[in-house]
Each structure stands twice: as C-alpha cells, then as structure tokens.
Amino acid sequence: MKHFTSIADVNDVNQLVEQAISFKANAFQPELRKGKKVGLVFLNPSLRTRLSTQVAAQNLGAEAIVLDIGKDGWALEFEDGKIMNGDKAEHIREAAAVMGRYFDVLGVRTFPSLTDKATDYSETLLQSFLKHAGIPVLSLESGTRHPLQSLADLMTIKEHWTKDRKPKVVLTWAPHIKALPQAVPNSFAEWMMHADVDFSITNPEGYNLAPEFREGVSVYHDQAAGLAGADFVYVKNWSAYEAYGQVLSQDESWSFGNDQLALTNNAKVMHCLPVRRGLVIKDEVLDSANAIHLDQAENRVYAAQSVLNELLK
Ligand code: AN0
Ligand code: CP
Fold it and tell me: Ligand 1: does its nearest atom lie under 6 Å from the Cβ of 274?
C-alpha cells in the first residue's frame, strides 16, 4: 500500500481489518516500526484522529509529530503560478516537500469548503500534498472521505456480528444545526459497498449522496421504511450534495431515539463522533447497550496502527 486516501488504495481490505483486530489483542509491538517518523498535519479540529493516530504510532515504536497548520504554521497557498502578494506566506510546493524530508509518512486532515463542489470533489488540497510531499500520505479525513474512520467502522461491525448471515446495515441522516461534510457518510458507504453486508441508506429528499457513493444502493426517503429490520444503524448528519453544502432540513423527527430503534432488529447504533446529544442521537440510545460508538472510537487506534504498519513497511 503506497498511500491511504480511500478504499481504492487498499490491496486487501480483509487483511487490513484482520491485522487491526490482531493489534487490538496485542497492541504494543515497538520493534515493528521502531524509529520511523509520522507527521500529522491538521487544517481542521480533531480529537480522535489526532490522539488515536499518535497512540497507534507509539504502539509500533514510531514517533508522531503533530502540526496544527492553521494555527501554528504559515498560511498556505495552494494555487500554482500565483504572485504571492496576499495573506498567504508559504506555498504548498515548499511546505509539503519540506515535511516530506522530515517524515516517513505524512497524515493530512483537510475538510471540504462546502462552497465549491468541484474543488472539494477533486480533492484539490489532498492532491497537492500527494503531489509535493514525495512520501506516503495518510488521509485523516479529506474533502470527500474519511477512510481511517471507515476501517474502524468495518472492524467494529465485524467484532459485533456473530450470526452466520449478512448483517443489514443502514446509514441514516440525522439533523444538525451546521453544514457538515459528506466525507464520513461517503466513505462509510464506499466501504460498506465492498463489505459482505446488506447495505442501504435513508435520508430526506435533497440529501442523496453523490452518485458514486450510492451506486446500486437502495435509498429510502421514509426513515421508518429504511430502518426496518436493521442490525446496525450508522447515524450521521451531512449537508446536501446537490444543493451543495446547504442545510435543507433540521427536521428533528429524524433524530435517532427509541422510536427509531424500535423499528430495527435491536440494532447496534453507530456514530463516528463528535455527536450532538439530543439532536443527532438521543441520550436514551447513546446511554443504552445498543450504542457502540465508544467501540468505534477505541478501534480508531487499531485501524490507524494497521494502516501505519503497512505504510511504514
Ligand atoms: C466532522 C464531519 O462531519 O466530517 C468530523 C467527523 C469526524 N464533524 C463535525 O464537524 C461535527
Ligand atoms: N471521528 C473523528 O474523526 O473524530 P475527530 O474529528 O475528533 O478526529
């Protein structure tokens, strides 16, 4: 594996998940990637990704160094051929190349603008890092995807599923007061489309994901119909893709509570976090035995460890 920016970079998804599960049973193996250096660059906030990736690197004997580039670095210019007489002090051509000389792997978090669909969906920022760093690049969530989250999610589903039929996995939209990226739901859908599960999506009209992230997937605009018989429900807000970046609905009847849970097959309820309690998922569900969001967050360590172990080979 050369980079880790989407499922397309992975040769063997099963092997990556199995390796993550085996790291969970035996996490501290500091001889494996001893002395390697991982740079983690954040253009946006993070709790889990930042901490779990650092723990993962330590477990492998590698060192992770974090740069909050928006706060502590020079303001970056991404456009080529510009005369830089504005507020940007450094070009990505130099910034990424310099970091490429310090580290063995470079992790990057870049949220989408949610204003310019073409720029976001062509992954302009992530592509600039890929082009100029000259070392393996690890997505810590980009404009369109969050593959470390999706790997942890797949691992969590695998851990919790004991029956010998395919689980029914449903991704449901939930309300939020802000415009959030489509990266988490896009990525979850992409990984579920490759997994041995029966996958479908439920979201209000106007909230369909980009066509490439729902190809061959049933989409229900009636949440009750979508949730019927689910074994796993992944709850997430996202902003509209078609009316790009807009909040078209804040309909709290889509908040995930006991009424929704009752429609499922006693489903395990998932969320990537951070979650707004009461709005996205109700306390009655988050504090119940059905909720497995903390397992997902814990598994972020082993997902990152599995990926770093490959990228640092
Ligand atoms: C971000 C998102 O929805 O993409 C990060 C999730 C991992 N969430 C928020 O901004 C609340
Ligand atoms: N789930 C997730 O990526 O969380 P953070 O934004 O806190 O890293």
Answer: yes
Atom of ligand 2 at shortest range from CA of 45? 6
pLDDT digits (tens, 9 = 90+) for 6-53: 999 999 999 999 999 999 999 999 999 999 999 999 999 999 999 999
d(CA 115, CA 112): 8
User: Do 158 and 218 meet the contact criterion of CB atoms below 8 Å apart?
Assistant: no
Alpha carbon of 109 to ligand 1 centroid (Å): 11
Domain covering 7-145+300-311, topology: Rossmann fold (3.40.50)
pTM: 0.98
Q: Where in the chain is the domain with CATH 3.40.50.1370?
A: 7-145+300-311, 148-297
How many beta carbons lie within 10 A of that of residue 206, not counting itself?
13
CATH number of the domain located at residue range(s) 148-297 in this protein: 3.40.50.1370
